[in-house]
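Below sits the subject:

***
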Amino acid sequence: MAETTAHTDTIPQAASQAPAQEHQQHPIGLYLVVWLLLFVLSTFSYLVDYVGLQGYLRWSLILIFMLLKAGLIVAIFMHMAWERLALIYAILLPPLLVLVFVALMVSESHYVLLSRLTFFGAAP
């Protein structure tokens, strides 16, 4: 019938534990540069309010600075820049899809409002 073979080839103990003991060290300078960039972006974000910008320009600048800061934090401090692409997709893709679906719902809400105003007239 079928014979079973015992494999006696084993991995040496030192070689099997080497990857578990190695840690990737990032230079402290990288973290200091990112911290400085976060400080500068936060300063610009506060300057938007200090200068007194209003309207879409204000909100677009605040959102741009917010996304830049969030991207730096996720990439460096959460070590996403050194992760596999599959893990990056697993963490970043769902929030992006939520934003796409929110944009679709906003578009749909404008259509519904226009339809209601067309068929039922203006609100009293």
The radius of gyration is 27 Å. Residues 30 and 116 are 55 Å apart (CA to CA).
